[in-house]
Write a structure and sequence with these properties.
By secondary structure, this protein is an alpha/beta fold. 34% of the residues lie in helices and 20% in strands. It contains 14 helices and 17 strands. The strands form 3 sheets. The chain has a 9-stranded mixed β-sheet with strand order 16-15-14-13-7-12-11-8-17, sandwiched between helices. It has a 6-stranded parallel β-sheet with strand order 3-2-1-4-5-6. It has a two-stranded antiparallel ribbon with strand order 9-10. Helix 1 packs across helix 12. Bound molecules: 6-O-phosphono-beta-D-glucopyranose.
């Protein structure tokens, strides 16, 4: 979705900035409306869509959850959250417009009575808002309910899209907890709904900076010719978080950093960075290339697991002057837990473009900074021409794609230091998203919700993409289960992760890009 702020900025040239057309009529049914995801991300995203005037007037929300709260109290509390998220610029009339359309069904979705009430609520909403019987079901629940809810939706006739109306279901992550369970979930879902009705979400694809990787690579002629093994030495993908596990210990302790972040978000970043140009920008053409490149990632052999994968867990300590608990002291975490909160990996992508170019990935909680970026490190210049003149050895060039919180692209190169001697220094060319396109308060879910309502699946995951992501990490899970390469290294909060992660890349004569912003 083009940002309208770009229209007023003279620095932005050749921009086709237009407001996307409003969505058609529909009811959005959120399972788990009282939960964190819905409050922190979904409702604020809907508010942003409403503010841009691209939500149909024939739009309503039906929320489903087990909390005993009355409808008006829920509306008031969601409105208060929205006011807080939007800050002083909050548009109260839009908040009112949105929350007045929320209808709440306080029932357990595993019980029969709940479904009758849901059907009644939907028919009331259909009449009041003329939704045309179009429904988007958002499963913001624990993953063990994904299949049960979808099966029930079908049994209740709620996925029946005959007569020109549409019915779709958004499935959140985690989609399975390993390759086999992801395959089983895909298979089981397909026995109850059609594939084109399933929208599997990876919220990283809703981030503008992530979508921009495609535009950067394929809307420009100058990068693609050097985007290969002849010019690129290696690639680093980092998703670092400063926050700890917070109150999600129950989920996280069963999951760990590898399952939580790698088969989905990190592998998605790898796919966009490494894929071949698609034949068109259609959802299928894009996704075919993403799957193809993931299938080229060489499985890590159990014998290599110790050298190619590092697991870490944060200890207690002090972060920004404030004492913070260690992972094992976090709420709902087993005090003896051996779950990893950090993982670093080295992958090889075995195809003609990338043979011999390692991809180093790392992600973790309680690190020095929240900083997610992709670093493309180019090969050295063929000759150190200026060495004899006393200049220091030039650094290899790198291109840094800042995903968050920095939303930028930096090209680092060598420049001459002013003066009579030939001295070189590393300088950079800098594109800053916000400077060009304005600082809009986005959650990343705006485009995803809009696309799901208009029926564009490009930014959602096909079944084979989900499985390809799991296939990348499955050999590691297997090796760990066999007791191979699963050593757990401690690291201090506010650090760059365990020393062993530095060794992983140092053994190849390379080093991680600094985490500090
Ligand atoms: C979620 C993970 O999918 O992504 C969380 O479950 C993680 O553990 C989050 O914190 C990171 O998302 P973002 O958008 O803050 O980078």
């Amino acid at each position: 979705m083009a940002t309208l702020a770009a229209a007023g900025n003279p620095q932005v040239r050749n921009a086709e900035v237009h407001r996307p057309p409003p969505t058609g009529p529909c009811a959005l049914v959120i399972f788990g409306i009282t939960g964190d995801l819905s409050r922190r991300l979904l409702l604020p995203a809907l508010y942003n869509l409403a503010r841009q005037q691209i939500l149909s007037d024939n739009f309503a929300i039906v929320g489903f959850a087990s909390s005993e709260i009355d409808e008006q109290a829920l509306r008031d509390s969601l409105a208060a959250d929205l006011r807080e998220t939007a800050g002083p610029a909050a548009d109260t009339s839009i908040i009112e417009w949105l929350v007045s359309r929320i209808h709440y069904v306080a029932l357990n979705f595993l019980e029969d009575a709940g479904w009758q009430t849901l059907r009644q609520a939907l028919s009331t909403v259909d009449n009041a808002y003329r939704t045309g019987g179009n429904y988007l079901f958002y499963l913001a629940t624990a993953p063990q309910f994904f299949l049960a809810i979808t099966t029930r939706l079908t049994a209740e006739g709620l996925m029946d899209d005959s007569g020109g109306r549409w019915r779709r279901v958004i499935i959140e992550k985690p989609f399975g907890h390993d390759l086999e369970s992801a395959r089983a979930l895909n298979r089981a879902l397909l026995t109850v709904v059609r594939d084109d009705q399933i929208y599997r979400i990876d919220h990283y694809l809703g981030k503008e900076t992530v979508q921009n990787i495609l535009v950067f690579r394929f809307a420009n002629g100058i990068f693609e010719p050097i985007w290969n093994r002849r010019y690129i030495d290696h690639v680093q993908i980092t998703v670092a978080e400063k926050a700890g596990v917070g109150r999600r210990g129950r989920y996280y302790d069963r999951t760990g950093a590898l399952r939580d972040m790698v088969p989905n978000h990190l592998v998605q970043l790898l796919a966009l960075t490494a894929m071949e140009p698609p034949g068109s920008f259609s959802a299928n053409a894009l996704q075919n290339e993403e799957v193809k490149v993931l299938e080229s990632v060489q499985p890590i052999h159990p014998d290599e697991c110790a050298a190619c994968v590092v697991r870490g867990q944060y200890t207690g300590g002090v972060l920004g002057g404030v004492p913070v608990p260690g992972y094992r002291e976090e709420p709902f975490v087993d005090p003896q837990s051996t779950t990893e909160t950090f993982v670093a990996l080295k992958f090889a992508v075995d195809n003609w473009r990338w043979a011999g170019v390692p991809f180093y990935l790392r992600t973790g909680k309680r690190l020095r900074e929240r900083n997610s970026e992709i670093v493309i490190q180019f090969r050295n210049a063929p000759l150190a021409l200026f060495r004899r003149s006393g200049a220091s050895l030039p650094q290899p060039n790198s291109l840094v794609i800042g995903i968050q919180p920095q939303e930028n692209i930096l090209l680092e190169f060598e420049g001459k230091v002013p003066g009579p001697a030939i001295e070189t220094a590393t300088v950079d060319m800098h594109f800053d998203y916000r400077q060009y396109f304005g600082a809009e308060n986005r959650t990343g879910y705006e485009t995803l919700l809009y696309d799901a309502i208009i029926g564009d699946p490009s930014l959602f995951k096909r079944a084979d993409m989900i499985e390809a992501g799991w296939a990348v990490v499955q050999p590691i899970l297997d090796a760990w289960a066999m007791g191979r390469g699963g050593n757990l290294y401690e690291y201090q909060p506010g650090s760059d992760g365990p020393e062993a992660a530095d060794d992983l890349i140092r053994r190849d004569g390379r080093s991680w890009s600094p985490l500090s912003l």
